[in-house]
Amino acid sequence: METQAFQKIYTRITSITKATCSLKAAGVGYEELAVINGKLAQVVKVIGDEVTLQVFGGTEGIPTDAEVVFYGKPPSLKVSDELSGRFFNSFGLPIDDGPEVEGEEREIGGPTVNPVRRQQPSELIATGIAGIDLNNTLVSGQKIPFFADPDQPYNQVMAMVALRAKADKIILGGMGLTNDDYLFFKNVFDQAGALDRIVSFVNSTEDPPVERLLVPDMALTAAEYFAVDKNQDVLVLLTDMTLYADALAIVSNRMDQIPSKDSMPGSLYSDLARIYEKAVQFPEGGSITIVAVTTLSGGDITHSIPDNTGYITEGQLFLRKDTDIGKVIVDPFRSLSRLKQLVIGKKTREDHPSVMNTAVRLFADASNAKTKLENGFDLTDYDERSLEFAKEYSRKLLAIDVNIDIDEMLDTGWKLFNKFFTKAEAGIKENLVEKYWPEEEGLEQKKSGKEKEEPTEA
Amino acid sequence: MEEKVSTKGKVKSIIANLVIVEVDGPVSQNEICYIKLQETDLMAEVIKVSGNTAYVQVFESTRSLSINTEVEFTAHMLEVTLGPGLLSKNYDGLQNDLNTMEGIFLKKGEYTKALDESKKWDFKPLVKEHDQVEAGSWLGEVDENHQPHRIMVPFKMQGTYKVKSIKGEGAYTVKDTIAVISDTEGNEFPITMTQTWPVKVPIRVYNNKPRPYRLLETGVRTIDTLNPITEGGTGFIPGPFGSGKTVLQHALSKQAEADIVIVAACGERANEVVELFTEFPELDDPRTGRKLMERTTIIANTSNMPVAAREASVYTAMTLAEYYRQMGLKVLLLADSTSRWAQALREMSNRMEELPGPDAYPMDLTAIIASFYARAGYVYLNNDKTGSITFIGTVSPAGGNLKEPVTEATKKAARCFYALSQQRADSKRYPAIDPIDSYSKYLEYDEVKEYMNENIDEKWTDNIETVKDILIRGREASEQIDILGDDGVPIDYHIAYWKSEIIDFVILQQDAFDDIDASTPIDRQKYMLHKILTICHTNFEFESFEDTAEYFKRIINELKQMNYSEFESDKFKNHEEQLEKIIEERKVD
Questions:
Q1: pLDDT tens figures, B503-557
Q2: Are A202 and A87 in contact (CB under 8 A)?
Q3: ipTM more than 0.95?
Q4: Exposure string for B457-486, b = 16+ CB within 10 A, e = fewer
Q5: When you count CB atoms within 10 A of the terminal residue's CB, does the N or C end of chain A come out lower?
Q6: Which of B 541-580 lie inside 8 A of A, CB atoms?
Q7: CATH for A315
Q8: What residues of chain B score a pLDDT lower than 70?
Q9: How much of chain A is in helix, strand and coil states, percent to nearest 5?
Q10: Are A44 and A52 in contact (CB under 8 A)?
Q11: Residues A160 and A207 in one domain
Q12: For residue A430, what pLDDT is reported?
């Protein structure tokens, strides 16, 4: 980014805060980029001839006589096939010792897709994780976050989802990623031999926080290039959106804006929607699917960030440690994929919706039984069986280390029903039971056997 | 409107989509101006004036805008174009036809025509020469997708006029002059099929607006039976995310007894709007046998479209509704969600550095919401015909907290409150409207009571009260059972609880995806209500609480099967017979 002839240079800064600088300048465009003392900055406010810049690198060490150069254009990214397999920082500059990418320069944070030009999402994304594929099926063009506490292995699960999903490109937008997590992603992608399908934009915890405001737009500009120009299916991973929102709050605070709920800027909903709504199924075949992470504090989903996110995204995935089996599972109660209705039983086997609902209902019976047990009430035979069912269901289907295809998940479901319940208790539609209820000996046979024996005992 | 010398200005400050302009002439509040950014014109609206500076909110992204850019003022407020051809259109918040826009992405500064100006409409005159007319008078009529679309004297025209000439039956475009009218001084005004109207001003060219009294059938039992809305009434649905707000709105738009449906998708998910776009053209209209889209207009401003246009979108939708009401039609207006609109207001108020009210919303939020809801209603037009706008808005309360400012403000304005409960949604009891927390103020109106008792059943209102009492007693019993344990309470408590469960399962819960159950006409609701009340008034005897549960589950099952069967079909009657047998088993006098 060398200085060009037409650029205007200023050297008198009038005010400096922790995240912004102001100076008198003329002919500056809104959202235009600038460099202050080698640090990138963007115009966020123009009042008369006073221009306020948000300094991505933080304002530490900036003197009032710092050199300010305006670029005359908003932040942009050069897009081409050369992006594949590369790692970039928040500004789209390589951090993997490779050469700079040549290609068409595109403004980031570009325009919105005309809603009537969108296609209704209809392609299933298989991940092999039953907690997702069976209960909360993902669909291309969907946007869905993991709501997770910081101690949960969301990055691992996300990497797994990314590698198993049959996406043409995976774009990682890392915000406030620790160096360890960054190396984790790099290694996992490398080992899977998937590096050529991956583009990463990383702002690590070592980088200034305000920089990460650029990451989602960078990632999504690259995603739009592959999805629109190349008609590819693109999966975008954004981790962690809570840190992104925190950065928004920092800037709005420095600009003396009145905070709304939870000290977040009043525009939080629009700011998040602008990013998540880039998820789209294009009519020509390309798609952008967004899987994000929103870390919670103490599981509180009423906090502004998860709350606004929940209103924008098409469902959410919750991870939880199941102490009965000692594994992390995808919580079947709190997780939801709003788009699953578009594919289950349509793109998957006809018994999918019934198996899904029945298993979750029986799992709920088990959790009621558990409460009963904890409160010191006696358990019925049904309670005991549902508890046993819950353990196996957790281990064989909900645990995140499961990797099987959807038909196998459904078959597993039927086997568990047969093992622990009668047909009446499962309460599935007659025609499906006839077709799918396993023939091997299950509880039904055992029970009827017992009843026959009983009279002789008596 | 008379021509003024247009005011010009220059951009002085830019803070996101708030731009401050120094002007050289008069400007008015809410006036529209265009900012001349290179080749594109950015549309903006004046929201505050101070001395010779105007604060304008820009309906587009202000990226690359710089100070001293020229601004042209238009001397009018944000207006919509009214005329035949509005139905089955998909508009954005500023009434641009989304279908005629080019490319996949919305281009900054691209504005498209609201109406097809080349289409010819078959016009039939309704007045003769020398007839006296005034604003809103029906001059003629065209057939718009089988709806009688009245061509009216523009609402902006004041005073009385005489028809100088009127075109005979024939095909005309919206731009052709179909009549000439003259005022008392002989000035002549040519009239076309279109007119414009500022969206923020209510259309009031009607005779009077009485209290609404007619029940609006929606086919949704928990609304019609328990908390009915009236034709011309207002209601709102607050609910946390995932509580089934959208499904309920879709059900209402499909089933409610309205001539015209206008849906304002305000700041919601784009894929949901896509669902509207894909499903509505496919949906069969149960009322006409044709497609629902024929009598529907969708105003879409998804959450990633410009914020200021989001605010405009609800007003645009309301103005279209008012236009059709003037034709003597019944309009149902749905807005999802009004919280996003309020947030748009908050973003602007914040940028203008106004002192904030609760949760940083503008102080006048309550007043803004109230005056918007007030635009709905049942009216007698000047020709003694009637028309109505029934308005139902959804609210997305932050964190599911119903004490937040938008919900509170809406509660003061809307007459019906349909509380979606997370608990019901979690246990899959859909629609998740809580029957006890929800209310309909219309049940207190004498004229509404009278109407229902006359048209449905003479004891209808009393029965509704009884149903609510049973539900409340059931809830109390259930709480007692939870505290004291199943065998810690008398069996009567279990019976009271199960009687309320019958109402819950058979009246309140309704399967929106079942062809028959999805919509229940009022005579069927009356029949079922009567059936259920008879059961609730019957005394039963049980030995243990286990028997109670098992017994009532059988009753519920038969009643549910009745709900799933064609009304009065053999299947329906079979289940009814079964039901009677079950009742006889435990009945005591």
A1: 999 999 998 878 889 899 999 999 999 999 999 999 999 988 888 988 998 999 8
A2: yes
A3: no
A4: beebbebbeebbebbebbbebbebbeeeee
A5: C
A6: none
A7: 3.40.50.12240
A8: 1-5, 241-242, 286-287
A9: 40, 25, 40
A10: yes
A11: yes
A12: 77
Q: Which of A30, A228, A339 sits opposite B62 (nearest CB)?
A: A30
User: Quick one: three-class SS letters along B320-386?
Assistant: HHHHHHCCCCEEEEEEECHHHHHHHHHHHHHHCCCCCCHHHCCCCHHHHHHHHHCCCEEEEECCCCE
A113–B contact, CB cutoff 8 A = yes
Nearest to A46 among B14, B267, B273 (CB): B14
Contact status of B67 with chain A (Cβ, < 8 Å):
yes
Enclosing H/E stretch for B560? helix B545-564
Which A residues, 425 through 454, put their C-beta within 8 Å of a C-beta on chain B? none
Q: How big is the CA angle at B115 (ends B110 and B120), to the nearest 5 degrees?
A: 140
Window B:268-297, CB contacts with A under 8 Å? 269-271, 273-275, 277-278
Domain of A58, in residue numbers = 9-70
Is A457 contained in some domain? no
- Chain B residues whose CB is inside 8 A of the A28 CB are 66-67
For B29-60, write each residue's pLDDT tens digit. Answer: 999 999 998 888 999 999 999 999 999 999 88
What is the number of structural domains in chain A? Answer: 3
Q: Which of B277, B305, B485 has the CB atom closest to A112's CB atom? A: B305
CB contact under 8 A, A120 and B346: no
- What is the signed CA dihedral for B549, B553, B554, B560, rounded to 10 degrees? 160
Taken in order of first residue, the domains within chain B and their CATH numbers are: 8-77 (2.40.30.20), 121-194 (2.40.50.100), 206-419 (3.40.50.300), 460-588 (1.10.1140.10)
Q: Same domain, yes or no, for A303 and A427?
A: no
Do the chains contact at B15 and A47, CB–CB below 8 Å? yes
Q: Are residues A118 and A22 in the same domain?
A: no
- Report how many Cβ contacts below 8 Å link chain A to chain B: 169
Segment A412-432, tens digit of pLDDT: 999 999 999 988 788 787 788
pLDDT in tens, A44-99: 999 989 999 999 888 889 999 999 999 888 999 999 999 999 999 999 999 988 99
Are residues A47 and B278, on separate chains, in Cβ contact within 8 Å?
no
A170 and A186 together in one domain: yes
Closest Cβ–Cβ partner in B12, B267, B400 for A302: B400
Residue-wise pLDDT tens digits, A353-384: 989 988 998 998 899 889 888 887 778 888 89
Same domain, A282 and A317: yes
Q: Looking at the complex, report in whole angstroms how far the Cα of residue A74 sits from the nearest Cα belonging to chain B.
A: 7
